[in-house]
């Protein structure tokens, strides 16, 4: 496998992993599991409601920083970093 193909495969694996986490948090916790999670309270709000309103946004922002960090490491690993 060429270096470019290995880099692209690693990049896709990272993107798919981030999308899975975001889907689980936003759709899973915010919609599918909202009922059971609403039995738990955080800061006075039901946890299912919190995930639907705030949790998925916080997770998305954290995923942006995680993705940027991991891509910098991948760029250095495959020697394609920006100078």
Structural account:
The chain has three helices and two strands. Strands 1-2 form a two-stranded antiparallel sheet. It is elongated. The protein has 83 residues and is mainly α. The chain has one domain.
Treating each run of at least 4 consecutive H or I residues as one helix, how many helices?
3
Spans of at least 5 consecutive residues with low confidence? none
Please provide the count of β strands: 2
N-to-C span: 26 Å
Question: Describe the biggest sheet?
Answer: 2 strands, antiparallel
Structure, briefly:
With 83 residues, this protein is mainly α.
Q: Which secondary structure elements does this structure contain, and how are they paired or packed?
A:
Elements: H1 3-32, H2 34-37, E1 41-42, E2 45-46, H3 47-77
Antiparallel strand pairs: 1-2
Helix pairs in contact: 1-3
Features:
mainly alpha; 83 residues; 5% strand
């Amino acid at each position: 496998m060429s270096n470019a193909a290995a880099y692209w495969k690693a990049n896709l694996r990272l993107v798919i992993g981030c999308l899975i986490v975001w889907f689980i948090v936003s759709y899973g916790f915010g919609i599918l599991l909202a009922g059971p999670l609403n039995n738990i309270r955080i800061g006075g709000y039901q946890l299912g409601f919190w995930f639907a309103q705030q949790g998925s946004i916080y997770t998305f922002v954290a995923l942006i920083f995680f993705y940027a960090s991991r891509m910098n490491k991948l760029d250095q690993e495959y020697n394609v970093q920006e100078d």
